[in-house]
Amino acid sequence: MKKYSENIKSSSDLHGRFPRFRPRTDIPIRVCSGGHWHDGRILNLSERGAFITLGTEVWKGEEVKLLLELPEAPAGNIELRALTVWRTSDDDHPEIASHDGYGMLFRSDKDADSLLADLIRNLVDAGRLFPEEDNSG
């Protein structure tokens, strides 16, 4: 299995996008919206954002807290702030079953950014994430 550094040529491509990864196994995430915590799962992840599913509604434009509770996290749990930038419905993406999907843009935070980069590297090296193919042409 390739290590993170063998999978990734640079931290961002020529268009300023960070590489995205898909999970091989479920990667849970907790989302705080409206003062309530909800369970979700990550469908893809990068250093700048994620596509997640939730069993509850989150409004486009809403700022939420995200909590990653994974053993691979270098410093325990990682809490991030994110902006909900887009949303899908089941009709658009039947692969996400009965939950809406949400595009989350992480708010920049020097400490959290570093922890997230380390977590992604650890998950790739452990075989829990793999690079998502770039279909942009």
**Strand order, biggest sheet?**
2-3-4-7-6-5
Q: How large a portion of the residues is in β-strands, by DSSP E?
A: 35-45%
Name the quaternary structure: single chain
**What number is the mean pLDDT?**
81
Helix and strand run: HEEEEEEEHE
What is the share of helical residues? 10-25%
Sheet bearing the most strands, described? 6 strands, antiparallel, barrel
N- to C-terminal separation?
A: 26 Å
Total beta strands: 8
Radius of gyration: 14 Å
Global outline: globular
Please tally the helical runs, counting DSSP H or I stretches of 4 or more residues: 2
Q: Unreliable runs, pLDDT <50, ≥5 residues?
A: 4-15
Structural class: mainly beta
Explain what this protein looks like in three dimensions:
The chain is mostly beta strands and 137 residues long. The chain is built from two helices and eight strands. A hairpin with a 3-residue loop joins strand 3 (36-45) and strand 4 (49-54). The protein starts with a helix and ends in a 6-residue tail after the last strand. Mean pLDDT is 81; it is low at 4-15.
